[in-house]
Design a protein that fits this description.
This protein is mainly β. The protein has two domains: 275 residues, YVTN repeat-like/Quinoprotein amine dehydrogenase (Methylamine Dehydrogenase, Chain H); 33 residues, no CATH class. The protein is globular and about 55 Å long.
Length: 328
């Protein structure tokens, strides 16, 4: 009989963690302490979103990954909810779309502009209502775009196709008489999120990247898990972990609603990540709003320029949405 060691050989025995330097961390963030049973943040290949402490409503920060260092206290926030934000999740197909749920019984979809926020965002692209009590969890469909799940304290599980703003299916009081056991799962790490595979540095043999939140210090530390190149080429099990869902709408909505068993399309990252074409999010048409000050509509009547403004560069007024260009 052949001798076998008592311990099981791990394929990750050659992986080591590399904590980022202080200048590559995110510092000075007032991280919230009231997020239900969910995580404090959400991360994708472009942005890092963190639920923050706020008064008079819920808010969260959205920071570009390259903007490291200390975050100013007056940094722009997403502050459209009227209650505490309980969960946030990025869209796995469109990297600037994020969903949030709150104690105000609403689920909201936000579109983050290119380069991050320049001012506070208070108006969501979509507002979804269907719960009668606070909503504690939101989750995107992993293989089909534009389908969102939400669960609340009213014992309802909603599945919505948010582009049409309609409710697909509502699950309420779903019980089974066959399984009467109660299962409990305890997660000790609520302050840890994982970067999606397509956002890793494949050329540096990075197999995972964690974002650790230190709540007491208001600090977020990126931790990269590196596999040595000499072992990276030999272990096929590790390399197969670098296959990730492609950022395409791989299945149409009708096939998913027919409950067919479909397998996701994978994208290999062995040779390095290649940026794919962007998926454009089309927001629903909205009614034109007016900003009236002293009986004058600022959106229709552009005030005349002064002599100093005519000699200077073009003026962009983002608050009112019009641009005054140079004459000629």
């Amino acid at each position: 009989m052949s001798w076998r060691p008592q311990y099981r050989s791990s394929k990750f025995r050659n992986v080591y963690g590399k904590v980022a330097n202080r200048e590559h961390c995110f510092d000075g963030i007032p991280i919230t302490k009231n997020v239900h049973d969910n995580h404090f943040c959400a991360v994708n290949a472009r942005f890092l979103a963190i639920v923050t402490e706020s008064a008079g409503g819920g808010s969260f920060l959205v920071i570009p990954l390259e903007q490291t260092g200390r975050i100013e206290p007056n940094y722009p926030k997403v502050c459209g909810h009227q209650g505490n934000v309980l969960d946030i999740k990025w869209n796995p197909f469109i990297e600037n779309i994020i969903a949030s749920c709150s104690e105000d019984t609403s689920v909201r979809i936000w579109e983050i502009p290119e380069g991050g926020l320049k001012r506070n965002m208070t108006e969501a692209v979509l507002e979804l209502y269907g719960h009668s009590r606070r909503v504690g969890l939101v989750e995107w469909h992993p293989t089909t775009n534009n389908i969102l799940f939400s669960a609340g304290y009213d014992y309802k599980l909603l599945r919505m196709f948010f582009r049409q703003q309609d409710e697909i299916r509502r699950l309420k009081d779903e019980l089974s008489q066959k399984d009467i056991r109660i299962r409990q799962l305890q997660l000790e790490l609520k302050n840890l999120r994982v970067m999606p595979k397509h956002g890793l540095d494949v050329s540096a043999c990075e197999v995972f990247r964690f974002y650790k939140l230190v709540t007491l210090k208001g600090l977020i530390e990126p931790i990269s898990m590196i596999l040595l190149r000499m072992f990276f080429r030999q272990q096929d099990e590790i390399r197969r972990l670098k296959d990730e869902l492609s950022q395409k709408d791989i299945r149409i909505r009708q096939l998913q609603l027919e409950l067919k068993n479909l397998h996701p399309i994978l994208m290999s990252l062995k040779e390095g990540y290649k940026k794919t074409s962007k998926i454009v999010f089309k927001a629903p048409a909205r009614e034109k709003k007016s900003v009236v000050v002293n009986g004058i509509d600022l959106l229709e009547n552009v005030p005349p320029r002064t002599e100093n403004e005519e000699s200077g560069p073009a003026l962009l007024v983002r608050g009112f949405g019009f641009t005054a260009a140079d004459p000629g």
